[in-house]
Amino acid sequence: EDQVTQSPEALRLQEGESSSLNCSYTVSGLRGLFWYRQDPGKGPEFLFTLYSAGEEKEKERLKATLTKKESFLHITAPKPEDSATYLCAVQDGQNFVFGPGTRLSVLP
Amino acid sequence: KAGVTQTPRYLIKTRGQQVTLSCSPISGHRSVSWYQQTPGQGLQFLFEYFSETQRNKGNFPGRFSGRQFSNSRSEMNVSTLELGDSALYLCASSYLDTLRGGSPLHFGNGTRLTVT
Q1: How far apart are the C-alpha atoms of B1 and A89, rounded to whole Å?
Q2: For the segment B64-110, what is each residue's pLDDT rounded down to a tens digit?
Q3: Residue A64 and residue A57: Cα distance in Å, rounded?
Q4: Contacts of B112 in chain A (CB under 8 A)
Q5: Which of A2, B74, B111, B113 is deepest in the core (most CB within 10 A)?
Q6: Is A86's Cβ below 8 Å from some Cβ in B?
Q7: Rounded to 5 degrees, what are φ and ψ at B69?
Q8: What DSSP element (H or E) covers A3?
Q9: How many CB pairs under 8 A join A and B?
């Protein structure tokens, strides 16, 4: 059965303190791994798609990487506005399976 | 480019009633998927429509149904509401249907349904 786990469940950082979020997955045939950001009361906002091991994508302070079993979302010098829940999802066949998310708080 | 639009944003219904939620996808997107999000279960897939045909269905009871119109707009209906149906219902559109894969889902801001 497809499974996606994320760690840590919650993370508190000081502004400027870099860190990484982890997404581990078990799927039979990965068609894509997706990262989203979700703010309270809003829908998930698409950030990145990764398709194959070794691929990296970057956007402002965020960088996503992919291996055969996990993906990392690296946050460099975060700001308070980066506070949100970060979700990863994998597509296996037709199905999207979402992880439970990491709740990130960046303190000024 | 306008994003995915969901209406209404909030709904309060009584147990036993039925409800219809609406979704307008991003222009040019023909695939529409519906998800239920709760604190305990996270994002759970309900169904996907492409070109007015249901392509995939999640593990939800038959009280949950949907449809898609020729302009790609979609509705979902929940009949005989239960307290456990209280959730954020999210609609997502994508350029390609999930059979072809690899295309990200773009979500609306959801409809917050409260069943009392």
Answers
A1: 24
A2: 999 999 999 999 999 999 999 999 999 999 987 766 677 899 999 99
A3: 5
A4: 41
A5: B74
A6: no
A7: -100, 170
A8: strand A3-7
A9: 58
